[in-house]
Amino acid sequence: MDFIEKLRDQQNKLTKSEIKLGNYIASHNREVIYDTLKALSDNTKTITKEALSSFDVHLPQFKEQAKIGSFFKQLDDTIALHQRKLDLFKEQKKGLLQKMFV
User: Fold this and answer.
1) Full-prediction pTM beyond 0.85?
2) Measured between alpha carbons, how far is 30 from 98 in angstroms, rounded to an integer?
3) Coil/strand/helix, residue 2
4) Looking at residue 1, what DSSP letter applies?
């Protein structure tokens, strides 16, 4: 099974935190990957499996990945909590405005 097939196989098993971690890692490697793909595309019509497998993608150790994932989950939970509070305050404001003009 090649790299792309492994990615497709794992695609539906990812959590939000894992997706955010992947996006974070990709954003830090984006320029290197883009420059390499651009150089390759200037000379060839397609990108080969060998060209893709030659990329050095630097990933944090699993322990660090777990900490990053935990941080993003905590951040998601905090954002959700504050969103719920904001929604409650908006409802309260709406009710107070209705009472004020009745």
Assistant:
1) no
2) 51
3) coil
4) -
The CA distance from 98 to 15, in Å, is 42
- pLDDT per residue of the chain (102 residues) written in tens, 0 to 9: 566 666 666 666 666 776 777 777 777 666 677 776 666 666 556 667 777 777 777 778 888 888 888 899 999 999 999 999 999 999 999 999 999 887
Nearest Cα neighbor of 18 from 80, 79, 66, 85 is 66
Q: What is the largest CA-CA distance in the chain?
A: 73
CA angle 88, 94, 98 (to 5 degrees): 145
Domain boundaries, the chain: 1-58, 60-102
* CA separation for the pair 65, 61 (Å, rounded): 6
